[in-house]
Amino acid sequence: MPEFSDEAEVTRVTKRDTRVDLLARRRALTPAARAEAAGRVQAELVALVRRLRPRRMTAYVPVGSEPGGADLPEVLRSALPPDAELLLPVLRPDLDLDWAAYSGPDALVAAGRGIREPIGPRLGMAAVTGAELVVVPALAVDLRGRRLGRGGGSYDRALARVPGTALTVVPLHDGELVEALPAEPHDRPVRAVVTPTDGMRTLDDGPGTAHGVAPHTSAGRTRAE
Fold first, then answer.
1. Superfamily of the domain at 4-202
2. Where does substrate bind (predicted)?
C-alpha cells in the first residue's frame, strides 16, 4: 500500500491514465456517431437555455471529439433572448481564463491547444461571476459532480469564481457519467450533465449509483452495473 504522502501522486497518475483511456474512446467514435451525439446534446442544451432564459451564459467551442459540435456557440446564441450575452473563454498565458462575447462564427480565431476564441474585447477573468448558466467541458463527471478535465486547471480556476446560484453543466458522450473519479482538493464540482441518451441530469451531492450510470475503475474504464 502507498504511504499517505504518496497519495497525491497516486491520484495524479490515476487521473493521467483515466484521461488517456477516455480520450482514446472519444477518438474511436465514428463521424456519424459524433454528429448524432452532437445533435442530441445541442437539443438538450437549447431546451435548457430556453427554459432558464439567462441574461449571461458561458460556453466554449468544442474541438475534435468533444461532445456538442463545433457550431455549439451559434446554436446556443440562437436560443438566448435577444438582449442576452454568450461569453466564450480566452486562454491566458498562465492557463487561467479570460472571457469575451461571442458575436458569430466569423469572429472566432484559432488559439493555442487547438481551441477557437472570440476576437472581441476581453472582459476579464471575473466576467464569469455574472453568468447564470455555465457550460463546461470535461472528459468525464462522476455522481458527486467531480469533473475530469485535460489537466491544465483552467476551468477549476474559473469555476471557483462562478456564483452558487449559477447552473454549471457539462456536455458528455454516453458512458462518461461515472460512479467515481479521482479528485484533488483544487477540483471544482459541477451541478449537472447532458448526455445524448439520457439528456439533462442534475447530480447528487453524495455517493450512490444511479440507474444506467456505469462505475469507473481505477484504470479509467467503465463497466456495466
1. NagB/RpiA/CoA transferase-like (3.40.50.10420)
2. 61, 66
